[in-house]
Structure formats: structure tokens, C-alpha cells
Amino acid sequence: MRSDYLFTSESVSEGHPDKVSDQISDAIVDLFLSKDPEARIACETLTTTQKVVLAGEIRCKGVYENGQWAPGALEEIEATVRQVVKDIGYEQDGFHWQTLEFSNNLHGQSAHIAQGVDAAGNKDEGAGDQGIMFGFACDETPDLMPATLDYSHKILERMAADRHSGTAPFLEPDAKSQVTLRFKDGKVAAATAIVVSTQHKKGYDEGAKEAELHAYVKKVVADLLPASLLSDETVYHINPTGSFEIGGPDGDAGLTGRKIIVDTYGGASPHGGGAFSGKDPTKVDRSAAYATRYLAKNVVAAGLAKRCTIQVAYAIGVSKPLSLYVDTHGTGTVDDARLEAAVAKVAADALGGLTPRGIREGLGLNKPIYRPSAAYGHFGRKPNGDFFPWEKTDLADKLKSAVG
User: Does residue 392 have an active-site annotation?
Assistant: First the structure.
């Protein structure tokens, strides 16, 4: 591994058009799971100027059965979509929660997919698709996340909180951030570049108002990044294109699942390619990625490695994973093969051997817990009640015992 280098990660705000789509898709997942914990959902969302379009496949008792919508179901779906847009804060001419045009194109799940996924007779529930999934953790931050991504998320979270509270009334919902850090001897040493582009009220692109916006962003950065990382050599690029009044879905179309690196590890880890939002937990793109993060985080929390990557692979309709791979990038306290065996043992006990049913039941994923994950990353969040259970570190002692 290189020890001296620059590395960069980006994040996008809850008002970014792709994130608007992700949040709507996950709000639909939550809606259906609140009605039927065994619901099957694959919901894609398109957002553009004054339009939201849903498409995908569902199966949900009491809501959509035998090709028919239950009374009031379509109205509840539309109300859920509009509420998400309202909560984000879009009340603009080009995208307004109250006046946008809504189209629902959800329909029934394919019977051929259902027969492969559903449990039947002696057959356990199968994976909802083939694919590879990765989990990752490192000791760069208390959240055991890559520092570049962690800081990028936190900058935008603070800006959104200030916008909602009225502390920064000049901000609008759409924003992006990017943090570049210098690493020396493999450890975070300095912030070399900070990029923040934020949608703003009219006039905040010139003169004293522009200076106010720039000063605000620099204060947010100073509040959130360790002072030791910031210096006169830190370069700031704040709204480098100048004006950013037109934003969100009015400025650029949004689609579910286009921010998979923002959602995961900021490029510090491989990615299997599958998005998370809009999918129920039978889809291993989502649930197995959560399970591997859970295991990797516990490996690092246990002090068994400073960095850990875990990969699993599945075939559609097959319950057990085809492979399990553990790599500590030369930072492990024990041999990777030995650690891999310990991870497999703990996963068998805690997550049913990483079968879709085992993961779902072990982590309690058949609940309406997904909308909060659809902005500011699915990982590095604080576990809270039913939310973000894959961020717990309750397997650390078990992993240490399994290693022996």
C-alpha cells in the first residue's frame, strides 16, 4: 500500500436531483413495508422539471394484489411522494411539491422472479438477483469510514440543517461537496482542497452577499474538520462556476441509484455496481452490502485490522452466497485466511450464513427504516433503534473469540 498520497471523495445533498429520486424511492419502500413486511419492491424514480415519475415492480398484501390497487393506495403513494419533496424544501417554480406533475407506473412483480426468490417446500428464500457486494471499514474516523467521504457528508448535512432551521436562509436544497486530503505514512495529515457548490437565493453570487455565502461555507468547514488539517495552504473552491440559482430536478434530471459511490465509501473501496434505494431487503444488492459493512466494521472495531474489505457473491434464486472474501490490506493482526474463517463463523451465527433470510432477520431489515439512508450515505451513520442496524459493533467480541 502507498503511504503518502492525495485522495478525494465527494458527496451530494438531499436536494441533489439523484438524491431526491433516491429518497422518493425509499419512501415508497417504507410505505409498502409498513403495510406488509414481506412486500417485494423495486421502485425507480425519475425527477425533472415539475415532474416525478415512478416505475418498477411490487407485490404487497392489502395494497396491490391480483393486479389491482386497494382503495386509496394510489392517493397514498402520491401523497408520500409530495411529502418527500416538501420535506427536502422544494417550493420553486421549476420544482414544487404542491404543483409538480406525478405519474405512477408501478406494476406487479414478475412471476418468474417471484418463483426464484420465494421460499417453497424445502427451498429457502433465494437471492433476488445475481451479483457481487462489498463491505468496507477503516479507522480513519470514529465512524470507521474513509475520512474524505465522512467530511464531505458532514459538510452538507450541516448546511442542510442550517437551511431548514433558518440559520442560513440564503441556501437552497441542491448542493455538492468534495474533500481532498493528504495522507502521510498512511494517516490523514492535511486538507489540501475543499469544493462546495450550493444552490442559493437570488443575489448571492456577487458582492457582499457572495462574500457572506463564502464566509459561511468556510465556517462550516472549520467547525467540522479537525483544526490540525486546515491551514493557509487549504484551497477552497466555493461555487466555482459563479451563479447557482437554478438547481435540483429543474436544473438536471435525477434518477434513483446514480450515486452509488456517494452512498458507500467514496471510492476508497470496490463497489459491486448495484444501487440500494428503492429495493426491499430480498434484493442482496442492498441487504448483503449492509451485511458486509456490518462484518467489516466489526473487524475494525475489534482491532483485528485498520482496514477491511469483504466481498460476497450470489446467484438469483440461490440462498447461500457463492463466495466470501476478506482482505485487510496488510493491516490485519492475524492472517487474512484465518480472519476469513472467523468472519464466516460469526456470520453463520448472527446472519444465517449470509442467506437473504438470515441477513434480513439478523439485522431486522423488514421494517420501514430506509428513507433516512437515502441521503448522506448508507454507512457511517449512528445506529438508532431500528435504524442503521448494520452500523452496530456488537460482533466485535465474537470475532475476537472466533479468531482465538
Answer: no
- 279 catalytic? Reply is yes
CA 37 to the chain's CA centroid: 21
**Concatenated DSSP letters for 328-373?**
-TT--SS-HHHHHHHHHHHHHHHHGGG-HHHHHHHHT-SSS--GGG
61 included as an active-site residue: no
From residue 173, how far is each of 159, 200, 209, 219 by CA, in Å?
Answer: 9, 8, 18, 19
170 is catalytic: no
What digits encode the pLDDT tens for the residues 162-219?
Answer: 999 999 999 999 999 999 999 999 999 999 999 999 999 999 999 999 999 999 999 9
User: Is position 285 annotated as part of the catalytic site?
Assistant: yes
Active site residue 57: yes
Residues 259, 307, 357, 360: which is the catalytic one? Answer: 259
Query: DSSP labels for 7-22?
Result: EEEEEE-TTSHHHHHH
Of 59, 176, 200, 357, catalytic = 176
Which residue of the set 10, 14, 19, 371 is catalytic? 19
> Whole-model pTM above 0.90?
yes
